[in-house]
Each structure stands twice: as C-alpha cells, then as structure tokens.
Automatic annotation (TrEMBL):
Protein name (record): Cupin domain-containing protein
Species, as recorded: Sinanaerobacter chloroacetimidivorans
Cupin type-2 domain mapped to chain residues: 37-90
Record-linked InterPro entries: Cupin_2 (IPR013096), PKS_Associated_Protein (IPR052044), RmlC-like_jellyroll (IPR014710), RmlC_Cupin_sf (IPR011051)
Length: 124
C-alpha cells in the first residue's frame, strides 16, 4: 500500500540536529533535519551526489570558491567530489537526499542520529 509523508510535519517533529529518515528510494535515503547556528567542516562525498531542499528558512552552502544562498523552496544538488559545507546562522529546515550510508558523524558535525519515525506516515 502506498502512503504519504508531510515533509513539513516530519521536520517539525524532530529535535534540533536530529536526522529523521522519512523514506527510501532505490539506494537513496530521505532525511529531514532542523539546524541552527552551526557551521560544519568542509567535507566531500566521494561516492554520491547530495540533494538539499530548503523546507523552511535559509542557509548558505559554502563551496571553496564562494557561497550559494539557499532559501525556502530552493533545491540544489551537490555533485559527488565537490567540497562543501552548510553554514546555518538561523533556524533552517532541510530535506536531504543521499546515498544510503552517506550521512555520518564525520560529515554532520558529530550530531548524526538517524531516526525512522513511522508515525509520520499518513495513510491516504
């Protein structure tokens, strides 16, 4: 049976820096997270691209040659091999799509805790 998830409801139920897995697609995992006042170290995903979708708020995705301002509704795919880091000065709510296993404490500032919340699934 198909089910749906309201992304905004899912991210609002999580605690700050808590990655909530809301789905899987092929070999990808979909996580939502709330972040505030945090700058991660530059890091790179050698094996996969990473998709950022801003559900609410804004942040800067810093690259070695500049910064891309991300605002509510913006979507950006960082190709594998590109060094990057999120700079979050205020509260931002993000949907991330990564290759399963790509997120870890090394590239999430030591705060990575993945939680699957089945109560977020809403039956049609």
């Amino acid at each position: 049976m198909l089910s749906k998830v309201n992304v905004l409801d899912a991210v609002n139920r999580g605690a700050l820096y808590e990655y909530i897995e809301i789905g899987k697609m092929n070999h990808q995992m979909l996580n939502v997270v709330q972040v505030a006042q945090r700058t991660l170290d530059f890091h790179v995903h050698e094996e996969s691209d990473e998709l950022f979708y801003v559900v609410e708020g804004s942040f800067c995705l810093e690259l070695k040659d500049g910064c891309i301002e991300m605002n509510t509704g913006d979507l950006l795919i960082v190709p594998k091999g590109i060094e990057h880091r999120p700079v979050c000065k205020e509260l931002v709510k993000i949907l991330l799509i990564d290759l399963s296993g790509a997120l870890n404490n090394d590239n999430c500032g030591g705060t990575y805790r993945s939680h699957t919340k089945p109560d977020l699934t809403l039956m049609p």
